[in-house]
Amino acid sequence: MSLRHGLLGLLAEGPASGYDLARRFQEALGTVWPAQHPRIYAELSRLAEAGLIEVDSHGPRRRKAYRITGEGLAEVRRWLAEGEVDHTFRMETLLRAYFFWLMEPAELRAHLERERAFYAETARTLRAYARAKDRGEWGTGPQVRAMRVALEAGIRINEALASWAEWARETDPMAPGSPGSPGAAASPAPAAAPPPEAEG
Amino acid sequence: MSLRHGLLGLLAEGPASGYDLARRFQEALGTVWPAQHPRIYAELSRLAEAGLIEVDSHGPRRRKAYRITGEGLAEVRRWLAEGEVDHTFRMETLLRAYFFWLMEPAELRAHLERERAFYAETARTLRAYARAKDRGEWGTGPQVRAMRVALEAGIRINEALASWAEWARETDPMAPGSPGSPGAAASPAPAAAPPPEAEG
DNA sequence: GAGCGCATGTAAAGGGTTACATGATTCT
DNA sequence: AGAATCATGTAACCCTTTACATGCGCTC
């Protein structure tokens, strides 16, 4: 679980309210770490209870800003230093790829083209952001430079996936005529290996 | 939620027990879609109840193999065709990158080197698998070709991340001397923007 | 017959999403 | 005055993980 540390990390930049944090999670970390406001408010309560953050100020519309404590800052730093990184990356795109053999070739080609377009466009958008940061439009502080590094990872992953989708479409791995491919729209065949002997 | 469809997809290849599916989820889909056996058994019960799968056979040690039904096969295909792909990729590596500015430069360099090594090694392993498949060591059926395509995505993502980690380490974005970097082990400073007025 | 690996589950606790609810302030 | 937006939360449901529990079959 890293929402806890994500919140601490954002609060290390300065005080913020649950609403602020929800917005920043959505904008900055939306694709790598989605978080909805109910979870965020709940987690903030827990963090406050644990003394890792504390109420900084009360604002206009019951706004309540939190501030990270020394303990909290130590905890993020401990988390970052400790090093045990979870390397799983949950990606539906990749899960689906395992089941491409169940798709009609035409459908698959269309799907891969949509995927390619999506990742290429995302990479393009991120690259524009990166260039803006490189021009110093967002300042040159350490946070901005860290974000630039994160951005670079996003760019490279999206580019990799775009080029993968293109490669897959060109390779046409499930093309009709290839051995074992589902005959073009002909039979919605059972597809299973050992044919069932009898029902029940 | 795609565990449901993941199970249906695997069962489309042929009958399997919960135990088999847990093992295959771990081995084939472990990094992209982790799933533990309790969830798998629970989901199999639900799928059976919904008529998407049914008991195929009973084996030695209370083993219970399931088989996909026509309805189940239609459901996976519907899922694959429908197209609404969730493009979020939860990656701790990327989340951490946003907080690199909180790390000591030396620590960060060490971290990036560990990450680089990990992704490079993973890519290497996957590439070896891919070559084996290309030599036809696992057959040439549609499932194998689909897996080859998925494998290619894994290779490209891991290569992208390895090259990113190397780039980041060489760029040395949080190097001492750069404006605003945490002075080498000097002050465990508050780091926050607006300094708190008073305690409590 | 001891131990290992196969095989299936339950229980508890926590994480995450969606829907619902509400109040306060600003803008038009 | 009405609408939009800021802001915080509760409730219900589902997903996920970890720990616990148990029994069968094979191998040594």
From TrEMBL, chains A, B:
InterPro entries per the UniProt record, alphabetical: Tscrpt_reg_PadR_C, Tscrpt_reg_PadR_N, WH-like_DNA-bd_sf, WH_DNA-bd_sf
Coiled coil residues, start to end: none
Segments forming domain Transcription regulator PadR C-terminal: 90-170
Region (Disordered), start-end ranges: 168-200
One protein family per Pfam: Vir_act_alpha_C
PANTHER family linked: NEGATIVE TRANSCRIPTION REGULATOR PADR (PTHR43252:SF6), TRANSCRIPTIONAL REGULATOR YQJI (PTHR43252)
Protein name (Swiss-Prot/TrEMBL): PadR family transcriptional regulator
Species for this entry: Streptomyces hoynatensis
